[in-house]
Amino acid sequence: MTIPAIVLAGSRPGPDPLLTGSGASTKALLPVAGKPMLAHVVTALRASPHVGRITILAQNSAELAAEPMLAGIDGLQFEDSGQGISSSLAAALPDSDAPMLVTTADNVLLTPSMIAEFVAGAEDSDVAVAMVEKAVLLARYPESRRTWLKFRGGWWSGANLFRLSGRRVLPLLDFWGRIERDRKKGLKIIAAFGPWLLLGTLLRLFTIRQGIARAGLRFGLKAKVVAMSEPEACIDADKPADIELIERIFAARRQGAIGAPL
């Protein structure tokens, strides 16, 4: 069986410093390693035997659909989104509890092997989140700077891969819509789930798996963390330094050195 995928390719409010002087009108079309960010992500999804239909969500989806490097890709569709991530996802969910894979247009280092690892680890969950432990990333890329969530047994960074079980997750998406502006502020996000989870995190009483499971229970959901083994899984394109690192990784992949797509 395959799972449909959604790629969040919209623009956030305000200017994006990555676009300054680039000639690109939106981040999803910013060239990285010779082609738009979104094209890298779609190529990886389409190459995965686990992924079925792919939906691109953006405020101006027609602009993305006109990108020549996306032309002719089977099972690809474009839909206009709202202004917020949570509301856009809620509108795109199926009328059932069928699972969906969600990623972002700046997840340019995504590979079929990452998708396979995540899909296997996320099985039987209502909500699953891909994450990379700090030691895994820094062992290969000590120069990389991420936002870390600190739990007992490790520090973790998100990897922009999610599994959502259809309409079951609507209450969670509604909640996320109220706090997504703080998405880079780990403790504020944790505090929003209640004082017990915040206290447990501050005192390192929980592992990240226990913390995510507790957070899911608030909404009656089985929530899981999928620990990704490839450090590149959490390197997305947020800052100029990220782009420089990503370009080096793609160059190494072309030479067959690291993280080549499988």
UniProtKB/TrEMBL annotation:
Cross-referenced Pfam families: NTP_transf_3
Keyword hit for Transmembrane helix: yes
Record keywords, A-Z: Magnesium, Membrane, Transmembrane, Transmembrane helix
Keyword Metal-binding: no
Residues annotated as domain MobA-like NTP transferase: 24-133
Record field: transmembrane: 186-206
Record's protein name: Nucleotidyltransferase family protein
Organism: Sphingopyxis soli
